[in-house]
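The pair is quoted verbatim underneath.

:::
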Amino acid sequence: MVGNILIIGSENKQGLELKDAVKKETHFTAQVLARNGLAISAVASREPDLMVVNPKASYMEMMDLYYSMKKEPLLQDVPIILLMDEKEMKSADLPSGIQEVLYRPLRMPEAIARIQLVFKRLHKVDQKNLIQRGKISIDVSKYEVRIGDKKIDLTFTEFELLKFLCGNPGTVFTREVLLNKVWGYEYYGGTRTVDVHIRRLRSKIEGRASTFIETVRNIGYKFISEE
């Protein structure tokens, strides 16, 4: 579920904090595009999958921006989330194209959760093809792994190994079981093969501040879920 979230409005504290939270807490990409002098073609060129409109100006100016975007063929079907003050909402007559309203000041955990729900609902995400564990996202159909918004290049075997461990978080697997599940019955290599691939996999997905695969002494390995 890789998505490009475009936050349109002034580069104020709320917009920048939302961008940082989206990039930190999800695997979406996020950008802030300033409203001043904004051309609709510039919005379309970013190819957003979802737009968050964060107006600093009046409600009527925000509506002018909304209808201008809906006239652009490349933006007509892009869902829109609106950031508003609660008192503005009481007198607002929102068009049906506004999928969600988030009240300022934002409560970031709630805002991120609602953005993800809108994206899943409107883009009809097939969860069977996605494994999401904290910052790690595995798109099974595309053989693609991302940590946050960074794409990680893995070999086929590394991908299959990570997919299996990530799909069974917290479960300890012996090296023999991993050989069986990942390499298959026809593989006759020694268990050291597992250690070598685990080491290579860790070097690609882990850093000083993140550990995803834990060694269980004298047994094997398990995936540590951040959830």
In short: Residues 155 and 201 are 9 Å apart (CA to CA). The chain is about 40% helix and 25% strand.
